[in-house]
Amino acid sequence: MGMSKDTALMVIDVQKAMFEEAEPLHAADQLLDRINVLLAKARESQINVIYVQHNEAEGTPLQTNTPGWEIHSAVTPPAAQDLIIQKREPDSFYETNLQQELAAKGIKKLVLSGLQTDYCINATCRRAVELGYDVTVVKDAHSTFGQGPLTAEQIIEQHNDAFGIFAKVKDTSAIEFS
């Protein structure tokens, strides 16, 4: 099933510092590869691409305008027409211009990828559904870190199951934009 021009691919918080933590990000290389596959499909179909950048306070890994804050160089750099949304909270809509930009572009469907499964992907997915968007989470193109007794794989699997209750959940290979 294809998607039309009212669709946007969101690449959330794929920033350098996320790949430099003491604990490695789960399947980091595969994540970057899959996001590049999604970006190539989106560009080929001339679908809107939206990058989201998390901004944190001075002295933190994602401090605004520091090397760690930059979008990871392994992910296709933003093209001139791409939108870059700056946020300070896990929800990409909260106190940002994302909703206004989506409305201006006539976007009704969102395809989510990036970081972190249990924070910004989770919060953005739920908010997008509440706002009436048709949401697809790319189940093998988001990641996180292990937390307490849970491995990253367990957190990702549990969230993919939960996302499936109110959003579509598909593998990278099943995403078609045209």
From TrEMBL:
What keywords would UniProt list here? Hydrolase
Q: Which is one GO molecular function term here?
A: hydrolase activity
Protein's UniProt keywords contain Hydrolase:
yes
Q: What domain of life is recorded for the organism?
A: Bacteria
PANTHER family recorded = ISOCHORISMATASE (PTHR43540:SF14), PEROXYUREIDOACRYLATE/UREIDOACRYLATE AMIDOHYDROLASE-RELATED (PTHR43540)
* Family per similarity comment: Belongs to the isochorismatase family.
Can you name this protein? Nicotinamidase-related amidase
Tell me what organism the protein belongs to: Paenibacillus catalpae
